[in-house]
Amino acid sequence: MNGTRRRALQTIVVATGSVVGLAGCLENPLAASDVVDETHSVTGSELRSPEKTTARIDESIADYGEHGVWGTAMTEPDHGLELVGGGYAETVDEGSLETDHLLAVYENPARASGETRTYNLWFWSGVRPTADGPTVERIETGVALSTDQFSMGQYAPAGDAGRDGSAAVGIGVFDVATPRVEFPTAGGTVAPRADGTGVGDGGGFYATWTGETTSTQSLLATCEIEGPGLEALEFEWTTTITIDE
Predict the structure, then answer these.
(1) Cα(165)–Cα(211) distance, rounded to whole angstroms?
(2) Domains of the chain
(3) Model pTM score
(4) C-alpha 169: how far from its chain's center?
(5) Closest CA to 156 of 206, 110, 118
(6) PROSITE patterns given for it (predicted)?
(7) Which of 68, 104, 147, 194 is the most exposed place for a label (fewest CB within 10 A)?
(8) What angle do CA 152, 124, 98 make, to 5 degrees?
(9) 234-244 vs 35-43, strand pairing mode
(10) Whether the Cβ atoms of residue 43 and residue 234 lie closer than 8 Å to each other
């Protein structure tokens, strides 16, 4: 590692058409860059099936352990939501870093009213530097709703957390149990990103982990959205990894 001087940034945009089962290997994407940025256009009709999403969740736990989708518990917590689909992307740099990202979509059936449906989006990002790999400084994941037919509600993390070595993520609602998990933070800070995060019609939510680690690190986050149903759901899902080589 040659000091802390940053190189010119390079943005990598992958699959701007669909999030369905994204997987791939980018040849040395970090060789000339400190940032790997991926943006996926997601529609409700193109989500992966619940079965395939569950299989990918299980793989994250097998590969990342307490840094997998369900954090330190390494098993799905009890809740009253229904998994309706998801999407996932994988970027691999065999020379220095491997990253994985997943977005699961759960419906809250207890809050259905007429044609309005409530969904919880569950985000996971995992980063694994190699033994001689870079320092991971920032992990980010989040969405911007593409239609005013949907509104952004509660989200977590809602404030700074994680400095004591772990962070808890979950949304509290009065009518049904929702997932709540903890994950290790390596002393980093977990927080919402102010720019782009906002409730209401066509809103957005972005979560960040900020710190310094040369070991495996994850980021978990969740938000609640409301709208007419999956057939009308559209949003842009962005993941960003920042490193220091």
Answers:
(1) 11
(2) 35-244 (2.70.240)
(3) 0.87
(4) 12
(5) 206
(6) PROKAR_LIPOPROTEIN
(7) 194
(8) 140
(9) antiparallel
(10) yes
